[in-house]
Amino acid sequence: SMQCFPSLVLALSSLLGALALLQLSLYLRVPSRYGKHEEQLCRPRGRLPARCAWFLQELPSFLVPALLLALRSPPRLEPLGCRLLCCLFCWHYFYRTFIYPFFTRGRPFPLQLLFFGTLFCIYNGFLQGYYLIYCAEYPNNWCTDIRFTSGLLLFLLGMGINIHSDLLLRQLRKPGEVTYKIPQGGLFTYVSGANYFGEIVEWFGFAIATWSLPAFAFAFFTLCCIGPRAYHHHRY
């Protein structure tokens, strides 16, 4: 049976933080090459339909924690606060894997970006799942702790913004259309990348609720990864 190695958690979290800074340095000036930004740069050759690509990319973030839980004998997700935290992570990726891809109307997705996205989802799914299932220790009353309750509210608010913004983006395009249109309504009235803003809020909420290095490293990575993309959307 797998055991908790705090040094492994520290190493993987630190590497995630370093990858976040690398993302920031790579994409702060030039946007990553997919979606509307690929018109301004060289077009990658190999691609997959957006629905298939999103499904394959996000799937490991749901499957890896589920597999880690299945491998643990006896299963341990105590107290209730820890169980809820693991459920929040899996709930987000259940939506991203099994619901979001089947409604998206995005452009075909570059295979190169799909490969790196899938690797990241395996890595992060393992780190968050391993920490919560094998290492995390919370007091029995963690559900009533201000960090848990405030973080949970932020997570739910961010997820709500993210899902609502995705809905508005889908409504911009008729079936078969892939041309870009500027979104209006909802939080898009105030923020150019409302869907990205929602996801950043969501993962910082998760980090506060979890109060752990892996979750804060992931929230920081999300900020450094999709924050510059939101900035380029605004400039575009």
From TrEMBL:
Q: Does the keyword Kinase apply?
A: no
Membrane-crossing ranges are: 109-134, 146-165, 203-226
- One of this protein's Pfam families, by short name? Steroid_dh
Query: What topology does the record note for this protein and the membrane?
Result: Multi-pass membrane protein
Localization of this protein: Endoplasmic reticulum membrane; Microsome membrane
Would you say which domain of life the source belongs to?
Eukaryota
Biological role stated in the UniProt entry: Converts testosterone (T) into 5-alpha-dihydrotestosterone (DHT) and progesterone or corticosterone into their corresponding 5-alpha-3-oxosteroids. It plays a central role in sexual differentiation and androgen physiology.
Q: What is the recorded name of this protein?
A: 3-oxo-5-alpha-steroid 4-dehydrogenase 2
